Amino acid sequence: MTPVIASAQVAEDGIQYSFAAEYRGPPVPYDLPRAVPINVQKIPVAAVVKQVTLSDKLALPVVQPIVSADKLSKNFSKELIPTAVVSSVVETRDDCCVSKEAGVKSETTVSPTSVIERATDNANCVLSGELSSSGALEFSNYASGELVSSSKVFDQSNENLNSSTIEFSGSFTKSRESSARLRESICGKESFDFNDELNQADWESSDSVLSMDYPSSRVSSLKTGDCINKNNNDDDVDYIGDVRRGPVVTFRDITSDDEDEDDDIDEEYSLEEPRIIPRVKREPETRGKKGSCYRCFKGNRFTEKEVCIVCDAKYCSTCVLRAMGSMPEGRKCVTCIGYPIDETKRRNLGKCSRMLKRLLNQLEVRQIMKAEKLCEINQLPPDYVCVNGKPLCLEELVTLQKCPNPPKKLKPGNYWYDKVSGLWGKEGRKPSKIITPHMNVGGPIKQNASNGNTLVFINGREITKVELRMLQLAGVQCAGNPHFWVNDDGSYQEEGQKNTKGFIWGKAGTKLVCAVLSLPVPSKSSNVSGELVSSQMSRSVPDYIERRTLQKLLLVGYHGSGTSTIFKQARILYKDVPFSEDERENIKLKIQSNVYGYLGILLEGRERFEEEILGERKKKQSSDETETAGSSDGDDGKTIYAIGPRFKSFSDWLLKTMVSGNLEAIFPAATREYAPLVEELWKDAAIQATYNRKSELEMLPSVASYFLDRAVDVLRTDYEPSHLDILYAEGVTSTNGLASVDFTFPHSASDDNIDTADQHESLLRYQLIRVQARGLGENCKWLEMFEDVGMVIFSVALSDYDQYAVDGSGSLTNKMLLSKKFFESIVTHPTFDQMDFLLILNKFDLFEEKVEHVPLTQCDWFEDFHPVMSRHHSSSNRSSNNINHNPTLGQLACHYVAVKFKRLYYSITGRKLYVSPVRGLEPTSVDTTLKYAREILKWEEERANFSLSEYSMYSTEASSFSH
Ligand SMILES: Nc1nc2c(ncn2[C@@H]2O[C@H](COP(=O)(O)OP(=O)(O)OP(=O)(O)O)[C@@H](O)[C@H]2O)c(=O)[nH]1
Ligand SMILES: [Ca+2]
């Protein structure tokens, strides 16, 4: 029998004790009130409202008290106050609520800083504040570990409690644990921003402190009586505010006090959002002692718990499935279904805990996480995002999220957007991204949007210091406080002048500067033509639906594993125009300089081989001379590697140019001149002899002969690379390591007889994104950008098993092991939790050939590969092999490597790894593999639906899960 704990708490300082009483009688049939002790000393204190002049027309702040005023005033520190949700709605005007100390901005209210100051010296006034939207500020230091959540409670004196404005939204006693968690979430990845965030407080508060749970800022008018009258003396505290989404819970726009406009907004909202969605933070229905499970009240803060994304209730593993049911909207208490999430938890949507993974099967977990991320109620409410001072409507939010180049991980908050250049940032800060320009989103940009103080302007915004530094480094003349007009392509002109002065991001160095200064640069993908049009067309399609129709496939692999070859194949296979005119021109030059590069490698090899032979001859000669003097073996000191003087001088020049790193610079001018010579040289016996020893020339790629064989054609000025040429060409995919292509799988003849349901399939768009290993940064930190991919395709070059490369620490390591290490780091990356992985075992053609003469055991990881022995071991084994087919050694070895990776993957994730051997240079092979990827995605989806609809392993009753 579980004792019902009324309350038990000891204050941290060890001096004051809240009393605790433990009920030990039989279970009671009725609900017991639950209480949480409050130590008045520890309640953050409000700034006193200055000169409240209560005129008639002044809209009054609203109170929803938990307890009656006299309770509060009499025995505040001793009384147990029932856990309560008091959600009040505050409306203020500058004249009624201005903090003395705070650096209050003209129109604003009390800043949280002032709140804190007050808190320390004024125990009678209660005021708490939290800015939660972007990085949640917490004042735990002031409140001894108690997390005081959003809102403001202020009270001038106890007598006028009822008439003043109080809000106790949020709990007084959130556990230390949760404040620690919050701190972690603030200080973790974003710790560098923390101070910024603090400084931000003033600013954010200006708009938003008074709003309910987050500084959603704009707050439309609320007529005074509304809430007060309803709840003023209402001790029953389950009232969760007046919860119509939109106007009622928001505050009057103080800065632009335009009644009509507000009214318009009201109408718009009620038209668009007829449903009633509670906006005020929900409180857990039950609550035990600190750290215990909210359902069974057992456990302590160390007990592993799952948290409700709406009300923050925490459940132990025994209770979670019962408390949360089938989780149609993700991890919410059954009673919280239909309620919007706590915005501070948005970043965790879809990120499953270990506990759920243990309790449910993989498919269920996937489905729940998917629902959590995609279901409508969990989507970001549009007016939580404010752009240039204007809260967005649904259409604007969709436009913003669906544009080709959207802001990353949009959270509630205030942003500025320069529609001309696409620059985007948090209000009061430097730009964080360049998004798609020219979108009709938010209001006009304000001069002080980014809080710059440089007197230099870009498109009407005073820029920040770092931006100015960047401009200077980019060579932009900034003397004389210029006003620039910057377009989305980076071209800029001075205001009032007609001619373009240059391109800000044009120079290669500028991007680097931006990277160093953490400033955004235009993204490549933003200028994919056609994208914009289609996104505008589909603009009314909500994000969560649209997202399903674009499946992203992330293609990664260790350097040289063939990812760019596969990427190019996809373009050639599925795009009508695989490469643009421009691209072809660049590729042509790249190929031509590659050819000279290959020649250079050959010529250098030739020199080495010649010297080797001559050296040996000399040795031999000197020993021969002493033994058998006289008998000379004829040839006049020449070796097969010798070349004539004409070639020799060309060779010297080319090698010198290569060493100086100037190879690219001599093109395309040199091309015409040297082309005939190159052809002659390539056919020369010495070069051919060198080429026959190509395996000794590590620098020479296997594709070299493909181009050298046709050197004359390739080096012509009017050469146009074929698709095959482009496929074989090295170094043409991208310069920055990131490339992406959108495509649909072409409708094949065999698809025609599939019913209409599947016709839809052909509409599905896919995006293949290729990233270079070295483009991922330290600890793969850029991988986070790819959290919305549907699958990771990891490429490994099978033929790497006997290759070596220098690893990060500078030691020579087997390339297969380097690949393996990279694979592990990607698989374990938190971004790819629960993600499907398809392993491509590439270069199967090279591999098949190689294993015949280089044993697979060259790589330590494959040391137990003994295919021949195992076949000899048992006859049954052999016959079973024979029944299937006669696998080649290459196939056996490939299978073995696949199993190695599958086991590795399973040991890390407990999941199944899909594997496909590939010949990257063969179109059909790549086509087959990408279609396999599509099947996996489809299959996973179907399986998940299947399992949940008919064969669900659990229901709301969760009977099957009671141990
Ligand atoms: N024989 C053979 N060669 C391949 C295959 N796939 C790729 N290659 C060659 O392997 C080399 C490296 O391939 P890439 O596609 O450039 O590899 P990558 O992963 O982009 O490597 P980095 O550009 O170094 O990151 C190229 O010369 C390709 O032509 C294949 O299946 N078989
Ligand atoms: Ca490459």
UniProtKB/TrEMBL annotation:
- Give me the Gene Ontology terms describing cellular component: nucleus
What is one Gene Ontology biological process annotated in the Swiss-Prot or TrEMBL record?
G protein-coupled receptor signaling pathway
Q: Where does GTP bind?
A: 727-735, 755-759, 842-845
Which PROSITE patterns has this protein been placed in? G_ALPHA
Annotated stretches, region: Disordered: 615-637
Q: What is this protein called?
A: Extra-large guanine nucleotide-binding protein 1-like
What's the domain of life for this entry? Eukaryota
InterPro entries in alphabetical order: Gprotein_alpha_su, GproteinA_insert, P-loop_NTPase, XLG_GTP-binding
Give the molecular function GO annotations: G-protein beta/gamma-subunit complex binding; GTP binding; GTPase activity; zinc ion binding
- Entry's SMART domains? G_alpha
Q: What is its main location?
A: nucleus
Q: Which family does it belong to?
A: Belongs to the G-alpha family. XLG subfamily.
| Subcellular location per the Swiss-Prot or TrEMBL entry | Nucleus
